[in-house]
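Pasting as-is:
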Amino acid sequence: MLEAGMSMRENNCKKHKGKIKRGGYKNGRGYCGWYVNRDGKRIFLRSKKEYIYAIFLDKINQHFLMEKIIFVIDGINYKPDFFIYDEDYKKLLKIVEVKPSRKEAEPYFQFREYFKAIGIEYEIEWGIDKIKRRWTTNEELQKWDEQYLENYPQYNMSGELNPMYGMKHREETKKKIGKQTKKYMKDKDVKKKHSASLKAFWSSEEAKEIKEKYAALRTAEAEKNNPIVICKCIFCKKKFEKKLHEEKQTCSASCSQKHNWKIGKMEYHGDAQKTYKTRIVKYLRLASETITVDNLEKVVKKLKDKGLVPKHFSLNRNVIEKYFGNIESMTKCLL
């Protein structure tokens, strides 16, 4: 019930903490929702005007459905609102188009002659306040508004709920829409709002669920189309895992390098061991402290932090033993 001295809109706004309505009638998103007529038919209504007219039809015992047929009239695709039938829903008796004002109803006057020619009664209703006063109550309208506010996330106007479902725009119309969209999206304020809206959405819990859902789908698709298989390394003959369509033939980078050397794809340019020893010595001479087994890694880290050696440079006890024999031999090379 309405509180004393408060309009229906103000009451809704208070009850739903300011979330009175998203979108408007012009974009096909009025106070829409599902309605069950007196015959138990579940019908989707796109506005409060359609809801009022649906109540009117029920109270005068008319049998109706919504948007059942698409007519092509002089190259124009037209999907009327109300289709009124006999009690068996077999014979179409009348078609009614409902608009909020005469101005919005005028483009539909051109269809009168077409329906007259094919023997279907056709009416256009606009400004139906007289029907509202006679056939609906404030409580009914209040209930309709509230169901919309409570359920609007599910009214996303996609698929069968889209006003253009089953219809196609003409090429001329597509060009007009494209031209207006380009003009609209060039506006700086629109770009700013659009960007803020997208950022807000992709930071929400709803977006998080969407991202997780599609990440799982992509993973499942990748596993199906490119599964993990067991292969044998062409160099060391050990078994290893790889993706089906991956061109990998060896189990490691080391085996790959050795195989390439073996088949002549890669060759040493001079003495590789001598070259690497020289590089180690060159880098360690930049250190300002004596190098021991205990401080080796710390010295290398300091050199990396100062940018004196590459980040990928690695040196440990095993490398020293491989190239120098022991750390004492290495420190002699630094002199």
